[in-house]
Amino acid sequence: MSFDSGKEKTQTIMGVSPEQAVVEMEEAGAWMVGANCGLGPELYVRVCGRMRAVTSRPVWVKPSAGIPQMVGTEIAYPQRPDAFASFALQLREAGANVIGGCCGTGPDHIKRLVAVLASQSSVRKH
Ligand SMILES: [Zn+2]
Q: Which of 53, 68, 104, 119 has its CB surrounded by the most CB atoms within 10 Å?
């Protein structure tokens, strides 16, 4: 599910909230629920926390590298690996069990993500 719409940018384009999405995904038999793509990791901290609050299943978060911008005729994702990875701890704190990257991310984003997560011991509340 991708959340990039609504006043707080925490709904799908069709207006589905994170909580509604969890219910629908679980009813469809999902073993893991989550969010991908969207408008960057900072906006998925809240989405992740809202999903975590209503599910005991693993939560998977795979944000894009920031808010996409048009550069000429190309879509560009502006967030550099360090900026992208700086939200890793907040995502883990919000309850993410799996963190990855969608549009605009590459090996360097994931390497920084791993480095940030490995640098801080996990204090899981879930
Ligand atoms: Zn994407």
A: 104
